[in-house]
Amino acid sequence: MSTTIVDLDEAVLEAAAHLYVWALKDIPQDLRDALAAARDRETSVTGIRVLETIVRNVEIADEQKNLVCQDTGIAVYYCRVGEHFPLHPARIYEALYDGTERATVEHPLRSNTVHTLTRENTGQNVGHRVPIVHWEFVPDWDGLDVKCVPKGSGSENMSFLKMCVPADGVKGIKQFVLESIVDPNKEITSGFQPNVMPATFGESLSDKQLADLVAFLTEPSG
Prior knowledge:
Number of helices: 8
Oligomer: single chain
């Protein structure tokens, strides 16, 4: 009877590298179906063109075995670790870190990480607390389950921020979201250009559509 010795550190490292690239290439089928369905029921010319471009982009990525988007995002891992798993979480994190770096160099992937204050690049998609890892520890189990969900920041580029006081409540939050949709030029930070977001949603959407949109955007998640 032969015994196979597995280098767990290297196995986790390889898994991290594979998952990071795989997540950037393979769009789940339910999302593909949703995009196609949205395209088929869209009525505006611009909307149809945008959705057709997205669907075709996914198809080209499949054909060329390439990334769906050049924005490779920040690697975010979700780890379920059994209390009897042989590797300590510190060594698991080290393997995830090295795997992220390996994937970035060997694929290669665009490096997105910069220092928060100096804006200097901190490495191959790694840095202080990057990659991000969410942990779940499972009693009476000796396994390890790892998922990778790269987090892009495209949406945050055009986002709005407001610090609400407790007295504002849910109503205040929803009012801020509504104002950001119908009047995006109301408050423009110095150095940023106006008219990045369309200012016509207040006219093109009905009150009910706006209310439904605000309800969707403010629905608790997690």
